[in-house]
Amino acid sequence: MAGKVMTKAQLVTLVADKAGLTKATAGQVLDLIAGTAVTETKKNGQFIIPGIGKTVKSQRKARMGRNPQTGAAIKIPAKTVVKFRVAKAFKDAVVPPKK
Fold first, then answer.
1. What is the pLDDT of residues 7-26, one digit of tens each?
2. Using CA of residue 52, residue 57, residue 58, residue 62, what is the dihedral sign?
3. What is the reported pTM?
4. What domains, with CATH codes, occur in the chain?
């Protein structure tokens, strides 16, 4: 993998510089987007971030699994999970399709 991952503080600084905002305002904008993503995904089952992708609330069915230590079969209950689906334009920009 390449370099280090950008921290929230670095992202706030970048957004503040590019948009001509203060760091406090840029931080509030990022927190607002994150908070809205959580509430909308809870309420509507999905939240779209244009150009990046969408979060989707999904139901997993109950299934049979195996305890890796003993090999015994166990029942894994159904549960709700959150998935992130990357937008095609974003994926193609990061990893160009093979020709």
1. 999 999 999 999 999 999 99
2. positive
3. 0.75
4. 1-44 (no CATH), 45-99 (4.10.520.10)
